[in-house]
Amino acid sequence: MTNPAPDNTRDRLLMQAELLFAQKGFAAVSVREITAAADSNLAAINYHFGNKMNLYLSVFKERWVPRAYGVRKFFKGTLSEKSNPDTSDMVRAFATAFLEGAMTEDERRCHINLMLRELTHPTEAVNIVVSEVIRPMHHDIRELIRPSLPETVNLEQLTLSIFSIISMILYFEFARPVVSLVMNQEFDLQFKSRVIDHIVSFTMDGINGINGIKDIRGLTKEETV
Amino acid sequence: MTNPAPDNTRDRLLMQAELLFAQKGFAAVSVREITAAADSNLAAINYHFGNKMNLYLSVFKERWVPRAYGVRKFFKGTLSEKSNPDTSDMVRAFATAFLEGAMTEDERRCHINLMLRELTHPTEAVNIVVSEVIRPMHHDIRELIRPSLPETVNLEQLTLSIFSIISMILYFEFARPVVSLVMNQEFDLQFKSRVIDHIVSFTMDGINGINGIKDIRGLTKEETV
DNA sequence: GTCTATAGCAGGATAGAC
DNA sequence: GTCTATCCTGCTATAGAC
FRET pair for A28, CA 20 to 30 Å: which of A42, A57, B10, B83? Predict the structure, then answer.
């Protein structure tokens, strides 16, 4: 959206603050660092936002939430191109919106880092994140998938599945360095596309979706309920 | 392991530092806070560890890694009780070791928070985490599951699946508050046990494992509940 | 709206007595 | 090994000139 430096101080502060908070976290970033990066004066944050915490909240309100709406729009846009999308189309559209479309690489890293920080160490901003984005996102997907399931479907299980899809998407983005280290595999475009394939396949068929192969022993299953 | 306050200062410092770092992150915790919590003197950290960063690293070396070994041992212990465990037994044992066994609630929260911080914002400690724990963990599971798959199995897909299992386990632990908020469901023991069931079922059959319901697109799977 | 200057405090680290 | 006292740096926030 606003990749080149915006012409007004307030927006430059928001942009640089978002980048730095995402990279290092709230406590590890100083207002000196932000104002220097935004090429503005030390006092600018207090003038425009009152204090550092309020700047942090404004980042969520004015940058994070709008971008999340962009992801949602991209997701719905992709889906509407398909006539009669099935569940796997939805999962793919969802994963793609997060991992490939809708954002530049830097925006994505930034976006997911901020979200994750709020999930793991909530501040006031977590209320914005949950009510403006996570809850609607769950609602969207649930209502899209539900029609293709029997009416007797267990809603709790469906919601847990949606969380699981989200967990994979987030993990493969934020834990990139570790994934690369363990797999000895650069995170290039080809690999990312295979990761999305994996997420779709794992969501549809679990571990047995591997290569379309069925688990040999998976045929006999004793479920302890 | 050492729930009551250890009698020597060094261990008390390590214990309290771990708790605080896990709760708030490295930058947000002051040495004053740690020494006060450990009921020791302000100068104690510098005397015993040289500086704050080295204390952080020592927490990983002396507390986090040993506990991770404990989880691994618990996992292998559970498995060895089963004769001829299948893939779902392994996944269940793995999820259980992380989410129910091996640790007290506080230790678990602490353990996973520290790990997640290193995944999202790596410091020097990430090398310890990956080489001492994540890589061996992947090796364990991969070699346990592989025999039940055809020799032609795609190793990359298998590794991605293991990451997916880990991603769910981590997510349902660290994003507890959000899960509770969205589902309007307290995270009690019963719910946690349902979450483990979900992880196993999702890993085995994906989203169609819900309620043992057959895949609506026709790829039917034998299921005995 | 932007800048300089500075208040006022909390941070990590250390020296040296015991 | 532990404690007190203290240094110095860096922090947020503000007051007031322009």
Answer: B10
- How many other C-beta atoms lie within 10 A of the C-beta of residue A21? 24
- DSSP, collapsed to helix, strand or coil, labels residue B124 as coil
* Per-residue model confidence as pLDDT tens digits over B200-223: 999 999 987 755 444 444 434 444
Contact state of B171 with A167 under an 8 Å Cβ cutoff: yes
First to last CA, chain B: 39
pTM above 0.85, yes or no: yes
Domains along chain B with CATH numbers: 60-211 (1.10.357.10)
Q: Are B112 and B169 in contact (CB under 8 A)?
A: no
| Rounded Cα gap, residues A38 and A35, in angstroms | 5
Q: What is the mean pLDDT of residues A84-106?
A: 94
Q: Any idea which residue has 């690293």 for tokens?
A: B57
List bases, strand D, within 7 Å of protein CB: 1-6, 10-16
Residue A126 structure tokens? 């977590």
**Residues A64 and B64 sit within 8 Å (Cβ to Cβ):** no
Gyration radius (Cα) of chain B, Å: 20
Least Cα distance to A199 among A174, A175, A164 occurs for A164
| pLDDT tens digits, A148-193 | 877 777 899 999 999 999 999 999 999 999 999 999 999 999 999 9
CB of B53 under 7 A from strand C? yes
Which of B91, B206, B210 lies at the smallest CB-CB distance from A153? B210
| Phi and psi torsions of B52, nearest 5° | -65, -45
- What residues contact residue A117 under an 8 Å CB cut-off, 6+ apart? A21, A22, A25, A26, B120
- The rounded distance, in Å, linking the Cα atoms of A59 and A18 is 6
Please answer whether residues A99 and A194 qualify as being in contact, where contact means their C-beta atoms are separated by less than 8 angstroms: no
CA atoms within 13 A on the CB side of A54: 9
Interval A53-64 mean pLDDT: 98
Tokens of A21: 């908070």
CA dist., res. A95 & res. A196, Å (int): 6
Measure the CA–CA gap between B198 and A167, rounded to whole angstroms: 13
Burial class (CB in 10 A: 0-12, 13-18, 19+), A26: buried
